Amino acid sequence: MTTAQDLFAQGSHAFAEDDYEEALNFYSQAIEVNGTHVEIFLKRSATYQKLGKDKEAYEDAVHALELIKEKPSSDVTVEAKAQLRKGVAAFHLQDFQTAKVALEACQALSPEQRTLASWIRKNEQELAKLPKAAAPAAAAPATVTAATPAADVTPVVSAVASPASTPVPAPLTPAAHRVRHEWYQNDTFVTISIFIKNVKKEAVEIIFTDKALSVSVKMSAGSNYSLELDPLSHKVIPSECKYEVLSTKIEIQLKKEVFAIKWGSLEGDDVNAGSMAAVSAGAAPAYPTSSRKPKNWDALAKEAANDEDKADGDKALNQLFSQIYKDADDDTKRAMMKSFTESNGTCLSTNWEEVGKGTVETRPPEGMVAKKYSS
């Protein structure tokens, strides 16, 4: 019988390959086998987020926190991770008050969590956009008199407990799941291309840490695009990472901490890591992309080169003449040059004994007449 750990490992492998539907399938099977494993719920929450299913991502994070409460652990980083997942999901559901509480709880437990500072800042920016009239709502219970029925304050409590209850001026991330990104690498950099057209530079916020990348883009339609890679499969040097906003895409370069290491995936545990030198010396390198059916670009380049070699028409004839001339002796070369030049390109002979006797006449093809060129 397949164990929950086996299914979890298969799900993590699919997640690393950017096959989120397959990862979701494995994580869900693992939960059916063992519904008390906190880490599986957290990974499924992250997978739901990648698929744009923010409500499900929120529910899995909340369930993970409930499991932690039932069986407290001395490792506070797990609870911090669950609070972070809850905060991120609440942010995408536009419940910024709930996100604030969760992110602050994460900060209290483990302030070194990667991308935490970025999410806190993003959430504070959204809270600042809320109507001023909404701000006193949290303090409303303090002004209620003893005669006020308890039912009058119930809406205030539910406003904090239920996700997506806080009004906001603009939708968040609906376009994120329509944006494509791809990546490739060399010895020094991993390059990520995010294909969004006509983005203003001031609308792009990118944060680099040694093991995470956070990208936020304010889209022209009023929504936000977000790409969170946490953790990256390998460490990078944040101070030497860079990005450029182009007319057709945003190009990000991550400086590898370990020179010439071959990344097998962008995010999570990299079981396919290797050496770029080994790739160069041995088998043809693979170029990872967001496509689930990667192309062998080297094979395509070789095929294109072969197609060029298979010339036809005048090109094929010229290639044949060049080959003959290259391998010919001196008399043959003289014959070819003399016959071709004197006949105005209408005759090519390799017989010097015949060509050397006199001028080679112009011999136009049948049905055509040779005329002298006059400038």
From TrEMBL:
Q: Which SUPFAM superfamilies match?
A: HSP20-like chaperones, TPR-like
Q: Per the UniProt entry, what species is this protein from, by scientific name?
A: Linnemannia schmuckeri
* UniProt region (Disordered), positions on chain: 356-375
Gene encoding the protein:
SGT1A_1
Q: What is this protein called?
A: Protein SGT1 A
User: Where does the record place its TPR repeats?
Assistant: 4-37
Question: Where is the SGS domain positioned along the sequence?
Answer: 286-375
Domain CS: start-end pairs: 176-267
**Which UniProt keyword terms apply here?**
TPR repeat
What InterPro entries does this protein map onto? Answer: CS_dom (IPR007052), HSP20-like_chaperone (IPR008978), SGS_dom (IPR007699), Sgt1-like (IPR044563), TPR-like_helical_dom_sf (IPR011990), TPR_rpt (IPR019734)
The terms describing its cellular component in GO are: cytoplasm
Write one Gene Ontology MF term.
protein-folding chaperone binding
Question: Which protein family is named in the record?
Answer: Belongs to the SGT1 family.
In its keyword annotation, does this UniProt entry include Glycoprotein? no
